[in-house]
Design goal:
This protein is of the alpha+beta class. The chain has two domains: about 10-40, no CATH class; about 45-95, no CATH class. The chain is about 30% helix and about 20% strand. It is built from three helices and five strands; from the N terminus they run H-H-H-E-E-E-E-E. Strands 2-3-4 form a three-stranded antiparallel sheet, with no helix packed on it. It has a two-stranded parallel ribbon with strand order 1-5. Strand 3 and strand 4 form a beta hairpin. The two termini are about 25 Å apart. The mean pLDDT is about 90. The structure holds zinc ion. Zinc ion binds near residues 71 and 86.
């Protein structure tokens, strides 16, 4: 299952209002403690990551020919220009 970011405070509020009266305060408190014990997810860790794979040649205009390691969509970059994200899949380029 893919991770997703949620609002823990909204979840605690929802638990409290959904189960109001149906379960005791002890159970509600226990659920809140479980929620509080969950690790905080760094949003950056969920970002798609990839790198440019360079073909080792240039096109007729001198641009570097490359493609995304994730979606394999081709691209051409002017030498010396940093392209931090894939234009097509949105992955952040590393390395
Ligand atoms: Zn891509």
């Amino acid at each position: 299952m893919e991770k997703r970011l949620i609002d823990a405070n909204a979840l605690k509020k929802e638990v409290k209002s959904t189960f109001r009266g149906a379960i005791g305060l002890t159970v509600t408190g226990a659920v809140h403690e479980i929620i509080d014990r969950q690790p905080t997810i760094d949003p950056e860790s969920l970002r798609l990551k990839a790198h440019w794979i360079y073909a080792g040649r240039t096109d007729e205009d001198g641009n570097l020919v490359c493609w995304c390691s994730r979606c394999e969509h081709g691209d051409r970059h002017s030498p010396g220009i940093t392209v931090p994200y894939c234009w097509f899949c949105g992955a952040k380029m590393e390395g």
